[in-house]
Structure prediction request, 145 residues.
Amino acid sequence: MKLAFCCFFYFVVGFAMAQDSDSTQILAQRKASNAALRQFDEDLNATFSTEDAFITTGAGTLLAGKKALQDYIQNASGPNMYWIRTPSEIKVNPETKLAWETGTWEGFYEDSKEPVVGGNYSAMWTKASGVWLIKSQLFVTLPIE
Prediction:
């Protein structure tokens, strides 16, 4: 009985530690993606998504593929803007190599530290390639509080 309990204990602890490690990796990827957006480096930002990623913008535009996202950002009219995503929750399924991230996002004009737009977002991450990459993101614009 002790052996079964010990095996179960190590499995649970190992599973929790794997989730923490994966969550930490996702948080690092999100931080690096935010930094790339802040520096207006769309090429670097694209490296955090799968080729076939889906993005629904805060205004409801659906973009299929990271090339479409790059084009959307580069062809946007108006002043330069960057976006910061702040995760509030990350859940990882190590068996499927998928993760759920949710939080808030804010959009800033290039030379401003005050957000002009924002809302909530959710993201699906995949580790199919061995590195956590964004497979899908949904942004919803909501009133700034």
